[in-house]
Amino acid sequence: MTIPAALVAPADRLDGVPAGEAPEPEGLSRRHLLRLLTDRRVTTLDASVLSALATMDGATVVDAAGRLLAVGAILMHPRPAASGGVVVEGARTTAAIQASQFGPVLKVSEDGVLSFYDDQMIWEI
Fold it and tell me: In percent, how much of the chain has pLDDT > 70?
């Protein structure tokens, strides 16, 4: 599965990390570290690695087979909010609502509240 171009910027996509790119003189960049995750599945990652990835700011995008597609990604908003273009929620909620048109989304708020979206909000705890 590929990530819809309208959802994740190419720079944030794991499948967009060039394979032969040489490290910068000052060391490895974020893109080089992300290359280590290319073609990995969340089901085969060590729990401590998955936990560390989950603490990164931004979205972790996974396909239906559990393959990591993006980590620490800022989700783009492919269409205006349903409220006539006025954002009535925070950026995290708006991104979750928009991303849910492509598949199920689990949003974790800064205060720890979990919300599940599948093209609409299903539950919040």
Answer: 74
Q: Which residues contact 114 (CB under 8 A, 6 or more apart)?
A: 106, 107, 108, 124, 125
- Token digits for 10? 């190419």
pTM value?
0.72
For residues 93 and 6, what is the distance between their CA atoms, to the nearest angstrom?
17
Could you identify the residue written with the tokens 């060039």?
A: 18
* 8: DSSP letter: B
Please report, for residues 20, 78, 83, the alpha-carbon distance to residue 58 in angstroms, rounded to integers and kept in the order given.
26, 17, 24
SS3 content of the chain, % helix, strand, coil (to 5): 25, 25, 55
pLDDT digits (tens, 9 = 90+) for 111-122: 888 899 987 778
Three-class SS of residue 11? helix
2 vs 104, residue with greater confidence? 104
